[in-house]
Design goal:
The structure is a homotetramer of 376-residue chains. Chain A has 376 residues and is α/β, with parallel strands linked by helices. In chain A, 39% of the residues lie in helices and 19% in strands. Chain A folds into 2 domains: 2-154 and 295-338, Rossmann fold, CATH 3.40.50.450; 158-291 and 346-375, 3-Layer(aba) Sandwich (Rossmann fold), CATH 3.40.50.460.
Amino acid sequence: MADTIRRIGVLTGGGDCPGLNAVIRAAVKTAINEYDWEVLGIEDGFEGLIQPGKVRPLTAADVRGILPRGGTILGTTNRANPFHYEVETDAGVAVFDVSDDVVRHAQVLGIDALIVIGGDGSLRIAHELMQKGLKVVGVPKTIDNDLQGTVVTFGFDTAVNTAMEALDKLHTTAESHHRVIILELMGRDAGWIALKAGIAGGADVILIPEIPYDIEVVADKINTRNRRGAKFSIVVVAEGAKPVGGEAVYQAERQVGGERRLGGIGETLAVQLKGHCEAEVRVTVLGHLQRGGSPSAFDRLLATRFGAVAVHLVAQGKLGHMVALQDERIISVSIADAVAAQKFVPLDSDILLTAFGLDICLGNSRQVIEEMQAGG
Amino acid sequence: MADTIRRIGVLTGGGDCPGLNAVIRAAVKTAINEYDWEVLGIEDGFEGLIQPGKVRPLTAADVRGILPRGGTILGTTNRANPFHYEVETDAGVAVFDVSDDVVRHAQVLGIDALIVIGGDGSLRIAHELMQKGLKVVGVPKTIDNDLQGTVVTFGFDTAVNTAMEALDKLHTTAESHHRVIILELMGRDAGWIALKAGIAGGADVILIPEIPYDIEVVADKINTRNRRGAKFSIVVVAEGAKPVGGEAVYQAERQVGGERRLGGIGETLAVQLKGHCEAEVRVTVLGHLQRGGSPSAFDRLLATRFGAVAVHLVAQGKLGHMVALQDERIISVSIADAVAAQKFVPLDSDILLTAFGLDICLGNSRQVIEEMQAGG
Amino acid sequence: MADTIRRIGVLTGGGDCPGLNAVIRAAVKTAINEYDWEVLGIEDGFEGLIQPGKVRPLTAADVRGILPRGGTILGTTNRANPFHYEVETDAGVAVFDVSDDVVRHAQVLGIDALIVIGGDGSLRIAHELMQKGLKVVGVPKTIDNDLQGTVVTFGFDTAVNTAMEALDKLHTTAESHHRVIILELMGRDAGWIALKAGIAGGADVILIPEIPYDIEVVADKINTRNRRGAKFSIVVVAEGAKPVGGEAVYQAERQVGGERRLGGIGETLAVQLKGHCEAEVRVTVLGHLQRGGSPSAFDRLLATRFGAVAVHLVAQGKLGHMVALQDERIISVSIADAVAAQKFVPLDSDILLTAFGLDICLGNSRQVIEEMQAGG
Amino acid sequence: MADTIRRIGVLTGGGDCPGLNAVIRAAVKTAINEYDWEVLGIEDGFEGLIQPGKVRPLTAADVRGILPRGGTILGTTNRANPFHYEVETDAGVAVFDVSDDVVRHAQVLGIDALIVIGGDGSLRIAHELMQKGLKVVGVPKTIDNDLQGTVVTFGFDTAVNTAMEALDKLHTTAESHHRVIILELMGRDAGWIALKAGIAGGADVILIPEIPYDIEVVADKINTRNRRGAKFSIVVVAEGAKPVGGEAVYQAERQVGGERRLGGIGETLAVQLKGHCEAEVRVTVLGHLQRGGSPSAFDRLLATRFGAVAVHLVAQGKLGHMVALQDERIISVSIADAVAAQKFVPLDSDILLTAFGLDICLGNSRQVIEEMQAGG
């Protein structure tokens, strides 16, 4: 099939993360060096195929020096869904299906195949556009590491290192002031960042969405540490962690005295803990810092391999597939399969077993967690 | 006088900051190597001279390996003021003056002189205790850099580097998503961290307490950038920055719709900007991360020099003095003078002139700032 | 079996690497928390079971705060082989087999099982001691990543990041001065560090032991870059890389004019290149810096899991086994199998394919490498 | 004078160092924003005014994003001296004085003033070109910090931090293996980097060019540490350090057994120490790594201030002057004065006093050093 291809497009969609530029660079270089194809860069995700003037050629010179840089030179957005495109009008927001226009736009641009670098949202769109005739290959991107089909994607390792370095910094303050310090990390549905960074950063408590936390168990852990002389505690909490009882209980606890709605789980937990512990509590929300920075070696290499192999997949005609890491090798899996389900922290992971051995509190008693696992 | 000294005490007071351990290490080593004195470590600031069981000998072995570590091995607190010591009783908080007990406690421990490493609060207490007979030498500590008498103190350089690295990380996200990103930094009264980190981190807008900001001027800067194609902006704001009109206007703006009181200046500014700009706005509050981490080379060296010279000041009988940096040399200045006034960013600094040349918005028009400066 | 165990020993052998302390910490905590065992720390590898006075109890307090620290609190050595123990005497070096004494010493100390953290040398010794009755569980350590049986070990990721950061730094100098900069990295037999760091750091040439290099091919790559306007090149070379012709040719080239024997492959390559390129050439040997530093998040987590699971292996009676990483899980493999062969970079790896796509020179023409692979 | 200026040139000369791009960026932005001048970038130092085709306009867009990047976008060289310009001919190297051509070339390009960013070599050339009519303003650059007239220049702080981080890494290996580790740092004539990084990195021995070292004193320090149980030592040596007896003795010691000339002072010292100590000795030469990397906050800010103020100096007609840092302010000093003498580590510095207090060996006995100071 490679000989029918003369020009490919590349776009990045969804939240930015370290390694996007490394994928772009490898794809451009490989397309030129190995196949002599032209590459068009599409700006701001699918927006670049909806609005005019957002496409530019990418040459080897354009991708020089971008390997160590975070973000994406193409721009990205979480919002431009061609099947559900929102336009502000005088009468409010109107929604259009512009997917046919996108496919036509790609044809007019002479794009023989499109490499979509994005999360489950962007990949799902890519998959649907393929039903309409657009030839697509995917590169998975999820800083939360919650995508099926690939062991891990680029950006995650950098985010875990950033979070761990924050924990290293907070440790000294916690210890010097005998405080409880809560660090809120990313992870809306899956607790990978919190779990891995928490263990790597020496946290005493780690709360993840997969295990609803019992505030009494958490407070007990902190109080026990205080009694034994370790008069500080480090609590890591994923943004999507919830107390036993779930969303409803969480929202109730977030509403303090009817007066002020707290920012997120970190602040809410702080208020809860103040009722159960003697210690001073402080909260830090790491937020967008986890998405920034120069990618780690692991992420630069993985992103580079993904970019290069994605181009080979196009040449092999593996449309509708995305690159993935399995057993230390880059393979291809069907996009449809990959976006079918999320990947959560399994409760029988040896990482949880390790956490128990280190006496890290995971939000509930070991017995309850083992029952969840048996039940789950 | 040195021969009348046989034992000195060391304590750290106020908020922790990178370099405290380097001061302790240098003081202990110098006292032992040069004068053959004993050193007692006092735990948790002045609390260690109020409560029993908080004093321990410090030998060379005790300070081995602590040079690169943030925080303080002695612990610290912002709260134990011997002249105003708060005790929780059944009837509420009672306040006592225990300063005489502190002086007596030090005598009983055989402390011939006390090295107090602390901010203006701790140094003021030290100075008052000297009136009661305690022999004191100070080592200034203020991460905000707002202390008179010394060009700079340790911890500040590390904090500025931490803030700058955060800006480097936020840049890629801002650029990739075409966003306005606000970074709230420390600096309640003086804007040193925000100004220096802001310029070093390539910020487009820098708001400091010394210059009340006009939201229209700030929004205009951002809108101009968007029009010219730089569709993102980085705004750095010191926690103590205020709009024109001051505290009252700030509190009014912080109260949004009567419903929810915003967290701080970063969040408040975001809400204000949303009314004046098209762009998406995001806020990151760096918080305690600025106090953590391994000290920079500058801070390790300065802290080490401070610790060593403080011991020599004790030997020379320079009581009531603190070490200070001036013209690249460590000198001694009177504690009383140093705590008499705060050090603000002068409006005629060449740093501000530099910011104008780079077209950085400082929260108000250049003309207004120059009039403020002329008005003094 | 766990109930027959009351006391275990832990030792670290071979070259130091980031993560050793994390293993020790996890093993000590898990042994105490999960099994209530005592732990003895053996100092300086097997030397600690040969010489007296080198054993100390390890409690939870002893391992507090060591997670982020490089090196090993137990000390290590590459030299104390109990089967071949060298002693300096007046008559020169005498060699003894003290393996029986080591086994007896462990019995006298009440060590029911020994956790050996070490490379293939230490693990081989451990395996042989097991034949003599010592109960052993292994934790693999090799910064070069050349051990069979485990996908990777701790320390490697940190070393690759350190090397990549060095490449980032050297890039700016190379570019500013239009120079060829050679970076010599670890890797005596296997080129994993050079290959991974080289790609992650944007190297133009990567030379590994698995592919003998042809100096003409390397020089041609550099000269082509110069002609095309990229007037600098970054060359990464593993310490064990050799020219076509192997060791004999290398030693001949290392001897320049009979006068001075060059330091290593980096310097030798520089001299070779000067004969074939116009450009100025500079060499940096990263050396021990690759073994130092705080471990990366990946290494801290992997080392922690290894330490915890090793203790569980002891409890399960899996003697003669070592922990290993496979498919993202910690499993156990036979030490005998693991040390039977080294793990080299396979010539059909998608990483090499990626390098070709990026037009990275791997020391020889693609055709020659593909023939080696087909032949190999 | 500003109104007679319409176009300025900028060039970087000498070895690269972190912060050059920050100077260029600030100069370009300030020239455009404040004075509406055009800026021409001259490539590869004075070479760009000798050879054709090495001049390009610099706009605000050209300097976007370069603040955090090491090196210089203009290129640099240590070799193009217009008064002594070397050209390779068939008959060998011929030397020409092309200084008149350089002045004429600048006129033809319409350069009304030239900002020269460089070390003492480049500044001396700039000063001489001014005698011939070229209008020049200087920005001092010396990573070694050995230039009179300014307290410090950009690049030095980054280099000291890089060296300190290397020491942090080497510490763990030295400690784990009970070794002596020697780190060779930059500093041909002045020992600033070695002294400051050595203290900040916790070195046990620091050897600088200003104090000839006595190998017996150094070995004695190491042996004393070993006897007392600290069985490792970290030795920092500036590349220009010499033994007592100076260059002649050094060259004799460098020639080992007539067979192999050692690389530099680090290797030479290692051989010397092996004769005097029991310990294993290892050497690391940091080399070009000290010139690389993203500049520290201090260097980015200082470089930015230098670049901005240099433009103001041009506007004020302060030709023949360079920017300098004194008392925390940017001032201007005569280039002629600045290059007249080098700035060495003064033997009465409180930094040396601090080193004594920490029991750091400075290469000779305290008594000898104090006599040198009294005599010096």
